[in-house]
Write a structure and sequence with these properties.
Length: 490
């Protein structure tokens, strides 16, 4: 089994798949303009390159009765940007001709065809054909479904087990996929079972008696796509357990920051050292302080995003909403949320301008803003008052190892999240966790921090995201003005 999350909320129920498709399609190279034979040769080479990199497979679905529905679901990955055509075909009995049953436009991620059925006993063959830019990119292997005649389960003339023949048993097969979205993986296992028949004396007929599903072979896993982890809806569903993001009081920093700042949570670095990710800060006078963003709502704050290719700058982002039991209710598109990949000591994807840090002068005007422009939500700080409360995970769910595409600049899917009762600490040790005060005069200023400035997360309370405190700067020293901290989470 793939390691499961420590989240106390159950994740998506297992999806049953009886026919699946996996597609890997490379992006054809862009060649200089050509004409005539050169164009034909170039097109042929591109098509061959597509065929060589495409891989479409289907899994066996066992037997079905006449008229029984055959659910068809698949997954695509590695497709170039845009939509691609996937055609489901079945072979016309007694011929070599393939007949189209359904057509679907697909991108990277999971998809589902309408369930298929067959009206006569016999064998029916299915395959899929993938088209890219109007050309056949790949043809899958052929699978065969055995279609059985519908059994006669009742008999005339005093029906009994001795006068009614027992219908033949059938073998069913399925593929079970279980997403673990915080880990961005999907576990997959093949299962089979035998469906036999038992006599029902009250109804005087044979009724199906399925045996338990049994796993066949070893369990495997694949990378999860956004389609595995979202269920698109227009608005936050009724009954959703909403998060509530709060900034912790800026004078109540973590143990490391408290020790580094002498217990004040603020410090001045008179000449910042060179950092290749932020060369403009080298030698500057920086006001350093830690920020802890907490989720004290009823449910997790989760953002799932994907993009079409590793070189695509635009992401599709969704916030996922769960009910109090942890079941996914729906996912709302967040077109205002964009991401960028940066070092800053983390090497992961950030929500652009998620939190804002400002320094206000005595008139309330903004005197300076922080160099920090990105944020990755992950569980790394437990909120003590919430410990052991219902639906609060005992250990991090959204972790640095899996959240935010750590070390994966070519990632196609990322996930940010804060569990209920957990927070994310940005300590003073990060090179951009600072406000440049080089050109500011000594005096009193207000430090203001606002969580989720871009509205990436729909919350139960949007009015409590700001905290501030007055400080006094004198040369290379900074002190907190007593009794001026407000709006922060204690």
């Amino acid at each position: 089994m793939t390691a499961s999350s420590s989240r106390t909320w159950p994740r998506r129920a297992a999806a049953i798949v009886t026919l699946s498709v996996v597609v890997t399609l490379g992006v054809p190279a862009v060649a200089p303009a050509a004409t005539g034979a050169e164009t034909n040769a170039s097109s042929a080479r591109q098509l061959e390159a597509q065929r060589a990199s495409a891989d479409t497979t289907l899994n066996s679905v066992g037997a079905r009765y006449v008229g029984a529905r055959i659910p068809i679901k698949g997954y695509t990955s590695g497709l170039s940007s845009g939509k691609h055509k996937l055609v489901l075909q079945r072979r016309k009995p007694g011929t070599r001709r393939w007949v189209t049953r359904a057509v679907k436009r697909v991108r990277n991620g999971a998809y589902r065809f309408s369930s298929q059925s067959w009206r006569t006993a016999g064998r029916v063959k299915f395959r899929t054909v993938l088209y890219s830019r109007g050309r056949v990119a790949d043809v899958s292997n052929v699978i065969t479904v055995k279609v059985l005649a519908a059994p006669q389960v009742t008999c005339a003339n005093a029906p009994s087990p001795s006068t009614c023949p027992r219908p033949a048993s059938i073998v069913e097969q399925r593929v079970v996929e279980v997403p673990s979205c915080p880990q961005l993986t999907v576990t997959r296992r093949d299962e089979t079972r035998v469906v036999s028949w038992a006599w029902d004396a009250g109804r005087l007929e044979w009724v199906q008696s399925p045996q338990a599903w049994v796993q066949v072979g070893a369990e495997t896993s694949r990378a999860a796509g956004a389609a595995d982890c979202i269920k698109v809806v227009d608005r936050a569903p009724a009954g959703a357990a909403l998060p509530d993001l709060r900034i912790k009081d800026l004078t109540k920093c973590g143990l490391g920051d408290s020790a580094a700042t002498g217990g004040t949570c603020f410090m001045i670095v008179p000449a910042a050292p060179f950092n290749p990710s932020f060369p403009a800060l080298a030698g500057r006078k920086l006001l350093k302080f830690g920020v802890i963003t907490m989720n004290v709502g009823d449910g997790p704050g989760e953002i799932v995003a994907d993009r079409s290719s590793p070189d695509a700058a635009s992401w599709r982002a969704f916030q996922s909403f769960y009910d109090p039991s942890g079941a996914l209710l729906g996912s709302v598109a967040k077109p205002e949320v964009q991401f960028y990949f940066a070092g800053d000591g983390h090497d992961h994807w950030h929500v652009r301008d998620f939190d804002t840090y400002e320094l206000l002068d005595a008139t309330g005007a903004v005197a300076a803003r922080a160099e920090k422009h990105g944020y990755c939500m992950q569980d790394n700080t437990s909120y003590e008052p919430f410990r052991a409360q219902p639906r609060v995970p005992a250990a991090p769910v959204y972790t640095d190892a899996t959240s935010c595409g750590k070390g994966l600049p070519d990632a196609l899917t990322i996930i940010h999240g804060l569990s209920r009762g957990w927070g994310d600490t940005y300590p003073t040790t990060l090179p951009d966790q600072a406000i440049d005060v080089t050109d500011l005069a000594d005096g009193e200023y207000t430090v203001r921090v606002h969580a989720d400035a871009v509205g990436a997360v729909t919350e139960s309370d949007e009015s409590n995201n700001t905290t501030e405190v007055r400080i006094s700067i004198a040369g290379n020293a900074v002190t907190v003005v007593p009794g001026t901290s407000s709006g922060g989470l204690s």
